[in-house]
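tmp note - Glucose-6-phosphate isomerase
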Amino acid sequence: MSKYVTFDYSAAKGFITESEIKMIEKIAEYAKAELLNKTGAGNDFLGWIDLPVDYDKEEFRRIQEAAGKIKEDSEVLLVIGIGGSYLGARAAIEFLRHSFYNSVSKEIRKTPEIYFVGNNISSTYISHLIEVIGDRDFSINIISKSGTTTEPAIAFRVFKKLLIEKYGKAEAAKRIYATTDKAKGALKNLATEEGYESFVVPDDVGGRYSVLTAVGLLPIAVSGADITKLMEGAQSMRERCLNNPFASNDAMLYAAVRNILLRKGKNIEIVANYEPFLHYVSEWWKQLYGESEGKDQKGIFPAAVDLTTDLHSMGQFIQDGQRTMFETVINLEKSPVEIIMEEEEVDLDGLNYLAGKSVDFINKSAMNGTRLAHTDGHVPNLLVNLPEQNEFFLGELFYFFEFACGISGYILGVNPFDQPGVESYKKNMFALLGKPGFEKQREELLKRLES
Ligand SMILES: O=P(O)(O)OC[C@H]1O[C@](O)(CO)[C@@H](O)[C@@H]1O
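out:
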């Protein structure tokens, strides 16, 4: 077991030459210098680089205090946010806490149930969640950096009303925690007006890089996970990302290797996990890389599979379909749980050959076999090793992917810190909804929809 999160591309060496690595090293070094000297595109969004060592300690203390209050006075916490304003918290809670967090008994969980809402516009989802809350005590953490995103704003209206009906305006305000810009946006105005406790998304940290700010930290702390250890993990990875030379700088190597593969026509990266609790880490990773690199008609399409589950749905395509992908496996080296297969007197299911072996050994064998099979099927295989399922290594993993993403975006020649493409759907939606200021577009769109 390694001491850190590590990157290993040895299984992909058949697809990459040493001279390609040598050549891209210079570009990766240049990208790193751009990042650290803040001379590249999007350089006003680099606050995440120093966050693990340079965060607001006073706010950190308030986050822990607020988490303590929510744990005491609420059976349910609603986390309202979308994209970077929810994926990191969800990834962390699913990774760090019980697989059935919300359904396991309170004696085991010890902390409030946590539901994520405002990440879609489904009335069914909202109304079912209202039923789940029932007449139980609840609080809301509304998270929106811009403070104007439609999906969370809609959910917030609904649940704020519910909270006010239950507790009255003054008490409801004490159960609403707003994480947003320090000065501007509709949510900031509302929070100031209504006196909600507020936390700040720093100006220079974009949504998808914000998991280590109050955006992620408050919900994660409410779940009972240790946010100090999470920050320590990020610090530890930051140290190596900033100081290690290319040959031993795992984040730089990952960024370099994926760009070499892209140049060879591998324009889809599939992140694969073998543990269900990594599902939302993959979802978080998808936004990080998708929004950072998918622009100017460029980028690697970030996809994800949960294995072995999806081997029985997507496995055929990965093994044998169009050869445009590579795979990055997030490998949890040590499962915290050991279940040993037992021998049965009559071997009706034919599984006695597994007697004495652990379920995790079987899982790892599936992983090793699949990696070899995919490699044989011309899917280059990369490995990110995660030593253990805890806060420290998750902090390392978050920072590893963030740093690699910045480097990779610069190697690709895009601004990894903006997301101009997201605005197109918003404009059309506002026009169709009749938002003031969008009258002309509305007419045009309605004509197109009618024709
Ligand atoms: O925190 P906000 O401003 O509500 O944004 C949520 C998400 O929406 C996006 O801005 C895309 O519209 C993402 O980049 C962001 O993570």
